[in-house]
Design a protein that fits this description.
Largest sheet: 9 strands, antiparallel
Distance between the termini: 23 Å
Structural class: alpha+beta
Oligomer: single chain
């Protein structure tokens, strides 16, 4: 996985938007954003991570224009809305590639995380983020969950700013 500051230049969200300013692993860790590279030939190692982090359930999601048909553009727009979850978001990339953008606090800068096959990314509950495909327009990912599989985005707004998961996330940053 490669991380860098988003350039904020308007245009196709699926382009790299690389500002040329890389983001270190230390910055990501300070934001509680974790990542590993586990070759798909060693997928059994995902079970070790799942056990260590108490992930009990999983499913697979494939996002392609062909697979989503007429819903493709609407789904991409939905994924790209700034939002948070009340659970960790865990993705292991089985095929393809894309971008997870995470909001840095307190600067409000976007950090773009470019994920490719074999990358495992964990976003903490309460972090503002968004997702988009890249120009390949295809990703297949294993989603891991601590409890029942669910994906409930809470779009950023006044209610999410005071959401207990968001508040706890910000408190954890102050401690780190």
């Amino acid at each position: 996985m490669r991380a860098y500051y988003f350039d904020n230049i308007s245009g196709d969200q699926r382009l790299p938007h690389d500002s040329g300013n890389p983001v270190s692993d230390e910055i990501l860790k300070s934001m509680e954003v974790l990542h590993w590279h586990i070759p798909t030939s060693q997928q059994n190692l995902i079970d070790d991570v799942a056990e260590e982090r108490s992930y009990k359930n999983r499913d697979t999601i494939t996002i392609t224009k062909q697979g989503l048909g007429d819903l493709y553009e609407a789904k991409l727009k939905n994924f790209y809305e700034e939002h948070m979850h009340e659970d960790e978001e865990i993705r292991y990339i089985l095929e393809g590639s894309g971008f997870f953008d995470v909001r840095e606090h307190p600067s409000e800068s976007w950090i773009r995380c470019q994920v490719d096959t074999g990358d495992l990314l964990v976003l903490p509950a309460g972090i503002y983020h968004r997702f988009t495909l890249d120009e390949t327009n295809m990703i297949k990912a294993l989603r891991l969950f601590k409890d029942e599989p669910k994906w409930t985005p809470l779009n950023r707004g006044g209610s999410t700013d005071v959401n207990p998961y968001r508040v706890d996330y910000l408190k954890s940053l102050a401690v780190n």
